Structures are given as structure tokens and as C-alpha cells.
């Protein structure tokens, strides 16, 4: 199984990631998920979320999840990008690609990965109610 993990403060370039899809003629499904920061957290308006992580443990946990993903489903490829730092409302903080033989496997694997990631990967978010407005 092909694996790719990126943890970065850089904005997620979704069109570029989709264009660089892991191609395989024997795989019939490519599932993409984009997690976008909402403009509210706990029913309060926010401008952004600030993500922090303990990178060595986060990478270790992601690779453990990738191992389990490979055991559970016939996945050809998984690519995951997670932002750290300040991510404004409306911007993507998470992007996942799963390539598999069939859509059922790809959708199930993607949902499982995201659900498990939220439980075990040490990435924390802090709501930022107001960000300073940049001067012209």
C-alpha cells in the first residue's frame, strides 16, 4: 500500500492534490475528504482554529492507523494532509485520499481513518474568536 503523510502549516492545495492522484488501473475508487474549519465552535463564532501537535507521536500514530487500515481493507493508497498552526474559517485543515478497488471499501476506510485519527493522534485545536485584521 502506498502511504503519504504531510503535517504542515502550509495551506492545503486540494486541486493540486487531486491532480496528483495515485493512479492504478486495477483500482475503481478514489475517495477524497476535506475537513473545513467552521465559523463557530461550541455555538460561538470564531475566526479560526489553531492546531498544535506533538509531531513525533502524531506521525507514529498516523502510521499505526495506516497499518490497521491496510489490515482491514484492500487499500492501494492512502494520502493524508493535516494543517497545523492557524487555519481560518472556510479553509481546509484536513485532506484525505483513499484509493481502493471498490467504493464501499474506500468510503468505509476513509470514515474509519478520520474517526480513529480524532481519538488517538495528538493534534489539538484551540478556537480563536477574533484574529487581527491585516493592515493594507
Describe what this molecule looks like in 3D.
The strands form 3 sheets. A 4-stranded mixed sheet has the order 1-6-8-2, with helices on one face. Strands 7-5-9 form a 3-stranded antiparallel sheet. It has a two-stranded antiparallel ribbon with strand order 3-4. It is α+β, with helices and mostly antiparallel strands. A hairpin with a 2-residue loop joins strand 3 (40-41) and strand 4. The longest helix is centred in the middle third of the chain and has 18 residues, at 55-72. The protein has helices spanning 14-19, 55-72, 103-120; strands at residues 2-8, 29-36, 40-41, 44-45, 48-53, 77-83, 85-88, 92-100, 123-128. Helix content is 31%, strand content 38%. It has a single domain (2-18, 26-128), classed as Molybdopterin biosynthesis MoaE subunit (Aldehyde Oxidoreductase, domain 3). The radius of gyration is 16 Å and the shape is globular. It contains 3 helices and 9 strands. Helix 2 (55-72) runs antiparallel to helix 3 (103-120).
Amino acid at each position: 500500500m502506498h502511504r503519504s503523510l504531510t503535517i504542515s502549516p502550509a495551506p492545503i492545495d486540494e486541486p493540486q492534490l487531486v491532480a496528483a492522484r495515485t493512479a492504478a488501473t486495477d483500482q475503481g475508487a478514489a475517495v477524497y475528504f476535506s475537513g473545513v474549519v467552521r465559523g463557530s465552535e461550541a455555538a460561538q463564532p470564531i475566526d479560526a482554529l489553531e492546531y498544535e501537535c506533538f509531531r513525533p507521536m502524531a506521525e507514529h500514530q498516523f502510521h499505526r492507523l495506516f497499518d490497521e487500515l491496510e489490515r482491514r481493507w484492500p487499500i492501494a493508497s492512502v494520502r493524508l494532509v493535516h494543517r497545523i498552526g492557524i487555519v481560518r474559517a472556510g479553509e481546509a485543515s484536513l485532506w484525505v485520499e483513499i484509493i481502493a478497488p471498490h467504493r464501499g471499501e474506500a468510503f468505509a476506510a476513509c470514515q474509519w481513518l478520520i474517526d480513529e485519527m480524532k481519538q488517538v493522534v495528538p493534534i489539538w485545536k484551540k478556537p480563536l474568536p477574533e484574529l487581527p485584521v491585516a493592515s493594507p
